[in-house]
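Hi R.,

Here's the chain you asked about this morning:
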Amino acid sequence: MDSTKIFLLIVGNIVNIALSLIFFYLIRIIFDIEIVGYYGAILSFFTTFSLINDLGIQLAYLKFFAESKDTEKEAICNGTFLTFRIIQFIIYTIILLSFIPLAPIYNGEIFAVYIFFIAMLFFRVSFFEQIFLSKKEVFKNSISSLTIIFLRIILLILLINFFQSDIWLLTNIILISNVSYFLVSLFLTKKRGFKKPNKEYIRKFFRYSIPFFITNSLIFIVNNIDVLLLNNWSSISNVANYFSAKQFFSYFLIITLSISNILITTFSKNISNGKESENIIIVNYTHKILNLLIFPIIFLTYLFVPDFFVLIFGEAYRLTGQILFIFILLLIPLSLDCVNIVQLQALGKVNFMAKFSIIENILTIFFMIIFISPNIFNLGVYGGALSFLFSKIIIQLIYRPIIYKKFHLRFYWGSFRNFFIMFGILLIQLWINSIYNFSALILLLFVIIDILLYFIINYILKGFSKEDFKFFLNIISIRNIYRTVSEELKENE
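And the predicted structure, written out as tokens:
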């Protein structure tokens, strides 16, 4: 059932991505590139401070909810989570109101930034995603998340005919869609029970979350400070290209996040029931399947995406595809580690994880400064993407032997086979492309053949089996999907 729920969550996210790409496309053809750059800078500024709304509380909630033995404890767990979220929301609001006048993120009217801030509040107050995922209600989660992006597209198409395409239009569209998301999500969670938290649960949440105070804060800072640094050290058009590539890359991360959000509850429950060995089996198999799928994505990105951005958005966005390819390479280590992290979280090894997370993020900041700075390497937008890639590679080399020895979490050596198969096919395709000038349709046909060849060679070399194929068929079974959706909807009646 978990595999079907993960598939449903991924499908919902793929629909979300498809709609997001439409919105992504619309704002880049409707608004000037400077507006896109300012939008990226403002969004990164607010997202940096949203670390206050994280701090590991969500992970604590998913872990302890999974370990709850009855509905009363679930209600107390819900109440504890809600209490922490309200406190975090108040702190977030106070700090942002203090910093907005001081931040050099927009050269126009500061009031537009305040409206954007109000729009973000309706999203940041949210605790809905975790509430849905605690019971693996992936269909409800998809409905609420799709509300935002669907409304943004409709509003943009309608309002662009009546209003000027400036930062005010973009801000108000985001405000209306976020308010709607809040109301829809509130309706879908109306049947959940909430009880006053007790001291035991408050202590449990707090103790589990403490290591994340530093690590998650660093993650939020690192994941947004690159755009802010480029906003100071590079042109606004370069910021727009970098922000676009990073935003596009975030859509790929949804796959790994979907898996993590579902498996944290399963792993926690297995550990509390003394079935830790089942987790190791899931970890190894998930790494195999994820890594198998990652290399065709990298292949397609290298071949198509740079030209795609130029074709769709024009010459001004040529850099976007080049930057995106560097980001896409991050999917290789992520595919080999995302479920390891879930297992360590379920085991409660948060202090262990915190040490490596701190080192990785400090390395990333260090690389950002020396790569982006015009006074050192002056790599600009490329330096931002390379900072993430270099720090991830270094930390994996340090961290891998340790988690194998301490927690029996193995490296998936088949990743080298997948890499060399795909790399060999890529070289052959590039050689063919250099000899013949194909139309886009013929080239697409070649890509389909290349991907089929990748899986056939993997099957011959035992990297892909009939059981794996049956696993995929079971995941997309209409019967399983229908049963999962029906169960969720019945709970809301």
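The radius of gyration is 23 Å.

Let me know if you need anything else.
M.
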